[in-house]
Amino acid sequence: MSSSTTVQAETPADAPRYDFRAAEPRWQAAWNEASCFRVEDVPTDGRPKYYVLEMFPYPSGKIHMGHVRNYTLGDVVARYKRARGFSVLHPMGWDAFGLPAENAARERGVHPAKWTWDNIANMRTELQRMGLSIDWTREFATCDPSYYGQQQSLFIDMLRKGLVERREAYVNWDPVDNTVLANELVIDGRGWRSGALVEKKKLATWVFRITDEAPELLSALDEMDRWPERVRLMQANWIGRSEGARVRFPLVDGSGEIEVYTTRPDTLFGMSFLAVAAEHPIAAAVAAGNAEAAAFVADCQSKGTSEAVLETLEKKGFDTGLRVRNPFNGQDYPVWIANFVLMEYGTGAIFGCPAHDQRDLDFARKYDLNVLPVVLPPGEDAASFHVANKAHDGVGTLFNSGFLDGLAPDTARKAAIAKLEEQGIGRGVVNWRLRDWGVSRQRYWGCPIPVIHCDDCGVVTVPQADLPLRLPEDVTFDRPGNPLDHHPTWKHVNCPSCGKPALRETDTFDTFVDSSWYFARFCSPQADVPVNRAAVDHWLPVDQYIGGIEHAILHLLYSRYFTRAMGHTGHLSAKEPFAGLFTQGMVNHESYKGADGRWLYPEEIIRNADGTATHKDTGEVVTVGRIEAMSKSKRNTIDPAEIIGRYGADTARWFILSDNPPERDMEWTESGVLGAYRFTQRLFRLAETAPVGTMGALPAECAPAARNLRRATHRTIVSITDALENFAFNVAVARVYEFANALTDAERAGADLPGMAWARAEAFSVLVRLISPMMPHLAEEISARLSEGAAALIAQSGWPEADPALLVADSVKIAVQVMGKLRGTIEVAPGAEEGDVLAAALADPNVARALEGKRVVKRVYVPNRIVNFVIAG
Any long-range contacts for 816-822 (C-beta under 8 Å, 24+ apart)? Predict the structure, then answer.
């Protein structure tokens, strides 16, 4: 089927048709007019609160299917909780600062602000077409001065509280673009945009002291039981608590000592070298007098600063000629500068024990250094055990280790630390992998850092009355570097303290700062302070946060830190930002490649009946690639606007929910969307025959088919409620399909049966409320038709409650077997007496024929399930 196939011929011409193109905008307007989704900053209606938030989008210009899935999931939760009687906060905003806007300015000559706001306008329209139950009065963009001005105020409060400081740190420096690059933007040692070799450069940068919160950030993960275990583990690993020792190694020439952090002080007897980072003071001192060392250091500094980058590099080193003495065995070992040692971790120096660390072993083999095993694996002989090319990093006992011989590694660590402390040459410490958060960026399109540098007064904060400190609009992008640095006047200002000429800070904040507190601002977006304390204490924490697993570490960790920092500054009392976290899967699609090797869009190909694909214009054979995540580079994307325009928002929402459990990846298929569209039409046609008007009193007499429909109705309430509570949206979809089948069966049984009209009216009244979180427009359309326009909006209606009496079956079906073979089924009352059940079984004609002339020697009855007759011979 071609991806451009329409559905106009899929429904019989004489069948009623749901006109989504007219219905969806009509109901969206009705919701807006009734302010269905607006809430107060500090509600006084007494309802319990529920805060639903999806990670807000970057305004790239168009929504994609990932957005559709993310916001559909959140909207189902918001609508469901609202129907259950909660006061629901469900806002939307825009993560609007960032590099793409500056790139647009350079490449297209359009100002970043215009590019961003135009994109926001387009994406807002597309999202509103989805029928999301969002309080749009709370909308903001992080590039709006009304938002970033409050962020500047927060920063000043944190600075005064000692949570922020300015310090020098090594960064990735792009010498062409003249800017700092995040580790993720260094590709094979080069800047992702310029292609220039990246340098390590020491710069003054503003730093949030996140490591002060490391113990609390780690320990609190144990209490976050509504977060995926996978995410909690990723955060724990990133925070990276380790116990070890700091050991001081004296230089043999008497010129000083080198301090090392190690998690394995038990292996000190297996040492064969000491290595320092290229940025270590020892390396700098050696390089100052040795051209070869200087060249090696420069080469190291042309690579990225992250652990991930360093782990992929070929292990290289430079022998400084210096030697240190091991405090345990008194032997001397060489000091190397190594490209795999990270200055930011520990002390920027390590001791190498090659026998028990693969990285150290690779290095030792490359430079022909000694390898002495000191941990003997179980079952190995101490005299013959050696390490070849694979380090032993498992269990065992210490040997070749003096006073540690015979100890298990854990015991030996404690003994080693005790000895170090006894000798005054080391101490036990807790170390953290987490680094303090450097937030300075040499960009224009970001929040200006609100400080002024004065020669006399030092760092001075911008006065509160001058906030927001706005970005200048008259900037140019005609040369590399930060346009704020190049601006002729913006950075020149008088010091607010002494009045002398001074300079504004021209760095802007890392955009992660913008997204680390936006959830709090949504609670009171018009407040003239960062947050209204009463509002933020009412709404936080977010009850359900929804977004991609790709944000599992940095965004979520920084948000957790910011919540604590805002607590320290008195802005809020919540301990965690997000009580519950759900990470949805990706939306996948086939990829296609033409004969010329060019990636093709789905709308450019035609799928043939034999499974092959051809280009719709040229007829050339197209190679069908893997089903993989939708991406612009592979062109395997589907435009949500086209899908909504062709099938309707409810169809798109229904298919997104129906395919897979929401935490798993899903495949977008044309046939699946078409099936979802047909089902919306089927429900509408079913409703066309439903009773209209008020239901009245339940009739005294109800036919069995009517009672069966009522039981199906109330069981469906329970099953869909349970599914929505547990994020099993695909299960909820399946239960709606089953309910539709029950409605069809009831219609076929006869609309004139006693009680059937009432049972069908009840069923449709329940149906529209059950589908309303998932297909809200169709629910409103059917409800209006059933009530002849008299009913309240479904968006403002309560959730149906199941009648417990109807959840108990009137009868149960019991299989009747003879010698284990099914011969018939009977219906009896639940819990019927065994004698009554056996009598009913024997009365079944098929069973009677099977037993005719036979002698029954045993009767087996499993209550409410099965009867089996065993016959002689």
Answer: 816/841, 816/844, 816/847, 816/866, 816/867, 816/868, 816/869, 817/866, 817/867, 817/868, 817/869, 818/847, 818/850, 818/851, 818/868, 818/869, 818/871, 819/868, 819/869, 819/870, 819/871, 820/868
Q: Smallest Cα–Cα separation from 37: which of 104, 97, 99, 88?
A: 88
Distance CA 607, CA 1 (A): 5
Helices (H), 374-426: 409-423
Token pair of 356 as six digits? 């028990």
Find all residues with CB under 8 Å of 423, minimum gap 6, and list them: 327
**Three-state secondary-structure class, residue 110:** coil
Give the C-alpha separation, 617 to 470, whole Å.
51
Q: What is the pLDDT of residues 372-420, one digit of tens each?
A: 999 999 999 999 999 999 999 999 999 999 999 999 999 999 999 999 9
Q: How far is CA 138 from CA 41, 60, 525, 572, 606, in A?
A: 10, 21, 6, 19, 44
Give the pLDDT confidence score for residue 180 in this predicted structure: 81
3-state secondary structure of 547: strand
694-715 pLDDT, tens digit each: 777 888 899 999 999 999 999 9
Name the β-bridge partners of 822: 817
Q: DSSP states of 815-854 as a string?
A: EEEETTEEEEEEEE-TT--HHHHHHHHHHSHHHHHHHTT-
Distance CA 764, CA 51 (A): 30
1 — pLDDT class (breaks 50, 70, 90): very low
DSSP 8-state secondary structure symbol assigned to residue 94: B
Which residues are registered as beta bridge partners of 349?
Answer: 276
**DSSP SS3 for 458:** strand
β-strand partners of 207: 165, 438
Q: What is the DSSP string of 485-525?
A: HH-SSTTEEE-TTT-SEEEE---EE-HHHHTTSHHHHTTST
Rg, the chain, Cα only: 35
- 440-497 pLDDT tens trace: 998 999 999 999 999 999 999 999 999 999 999 999 988 888 999 999 999 999 999 9
Q: Identify the band that residue 310 occupies on the pLDDT scale cut at 50, 70 and 90.
A: low
pTM of the model: 0.86
Instruction: Give Cβ neighbours of residue 277 (< 8 Å, ≥ 6 apart).
Output: 283, 300, 337, 338, 341, 342, 343, 348, 349
3-state percent helix, strand, coil for the chain, nearest multiple of 5: 40, 20, 40
